[in-house]
Write a structure and sequence with these properties.
Layout (H helix, E strand, L loop, with lengths): L5 H12 L3 H11 L3 H17 L4 H21 L3 H7 L1
Helix pairs in contact: 1-5, 2-3, 3-4
Length: 87
């Protein structure tokens, strides 16, 4: 099982406050050990930064990755509620 530290949760909460959700998803994926998923989020973040928005299909892809990440976290993070509340 994985436990997020208070410092990690604070970073995630701060990113959320600044609407840096994509960066959070990449960070959380890395902390969960989901390296490929983190790379996917980083690639989507790059598209978002370069284009200024996400089209429907890319947004749907990010949502799908997010749902997979949350499902994994729910099953493997001891303080999942704290993590989820920081998003």
């Amino acid at each position: 099982m994985i436990t997020f530290t208070n410092a990690q949760l604070a970073i995630i909460a701060e990113n959320t406050d600044f609407n840096h959700h994509g960066e959070n998803y990449a960070l959380i994926s890395e902390l969960l050990g989901l390296k490929k998923m983190a790379q996917n989020f980083k690639a989507i973040n790059t598209i978002h930064e370069n284009v200024g928005h996400l089209d429907g299909s890319t947004s749907a892809l990010r949502r799908s990755f997010y749902e997979q990440m949350i499902k994994f976290a729910e099953q493997n993070v001891t303080n999942f509620k704290d993590l989820y509340n920081s998003l």
